[in-house]
Structure prediction request, 352 residues.
Amino acid sequence: MEFAQLLQLVVDRKASDLHLVVGLPPMLRVDGLLAAVPNEQVLAPEDVDRLIKSFLTAEQIERVTVNKEIDLGVSFSQNARFRANIYHQRGYITAALRRIPMEIPTIEGLKLPQILYTFTKLRQGLVLVTGPTGHGKSTTIAAMLDEINKTRPAHVLTIEDPIEFVFTPRQAMFSQREMREDTLSWEIALRSALREDPDIVLIGEMRDYETIAAALTIAETGHLVFATLHTNSAAQTIDRIVDVFPENQQSQVRLQLSNVLEGVFSQRLVPLLSGGRTAAYEVLTGTNAVRSTIRDGKTHQIDNIIQTSAEFGMTTLEANLAAYVQQGLISLEEAISFSIRPEELTRIVKGS
Prediction:
C-alpha cells in the first residue's frame, strides 16, 4: 500500500494515528487501541524508508539524518492534515503520524463544559489545557480559538511545532508560526511575540523554563495566553510550573502565576460503551481562593477547593467520570482506570 493510500485509510477508519515501524505491518490507532492494517505485510527497512521519504523534502531528510528526529506537518487532501514525528529506533527510520481534521470541532460538538466559553471571552490571563499525550488537548484549544474567531475581532498569534489546525479568518486575524519554518526557536518567537501586536497568544506546548517564563510574562502584560502542558491534574499543573524555576525564584513565580492564572482544563479521552471516545475532565478556575492557595504555596488544598466550588464552574475528574458512569456512557471499570483517585470515584458512584 502506498503512503497516500495509508493516509486515506486513516481518514476512512476515523483513526487518530498511523505508525510505520520496521518489523510490523502499518499500525492504526482507532478509539485509543492499536491494530495492524488488515492484509498488509510486515514492513522491511526499505519499505519504511521509501514510505517516509516519499513525503519529506530533501532538507527534511537531511535534518532527520543529522538530528535523528524531526516534527513536521503533512497536508493530505481536503479532509485531513497530519502532525508527523519522524524518529529512529533500533537504527531504523520510523514515523508516527497524528490525524488533524480540517474542520475544527466546536466546544458544543465536543461536549465540553460551558466554562470554556467563559475562557474565550477573557481579555487577559493564562488558560492551560493539560493531560496525557494524544488525549485531545490541541483539539480543545482549537475549539476555543475557533469560538474566538467567530465572536471577536482579535489578533491571534500561534507558535506551534508543527502547526496543527489551520484557521480561516472570520472576525479574528490569525498569524500561525511554525518552528523552523517561520522562526528559528521558541525563545526567539516568544521574545518577538509582544512586538507583533497580538491580543491572544497560543503557545503550542509549555515545555521548559524559557517557554513557561515567557507565557507568564505575556499573560502579565495584558494578553490572553492559551497553552498546553503534559500533567494529569490541576494541582500537578501548578507544581510543575513552579518547580521548573530555581528555588530562589519560586516565591516570585507563585505570585506571578496567582495573578494571571484564569483556568486549568485537564482532560483525557475515555472509551464510550457505544464506541468512540469522549473527554473526561477536571476544571480549575482562578477564584480568589485558588489565587491565595497558589501564592501561599499550598497546592495540596487545590483538590478540596475544586470539590467545593461547583458554582464557579469547577469539577473534579472523579465527579465527571462518575456522571458518565451514572449516565450509562462508560463502564465503572473504565472510569476507575482513568481516575486519579479511584476511591473517591467509587464513593461518588455508590453515594448516588
The chain is about 40% helix and 25% strand. The longest strand covers residues 261-271. The mean pLDDT is 95.
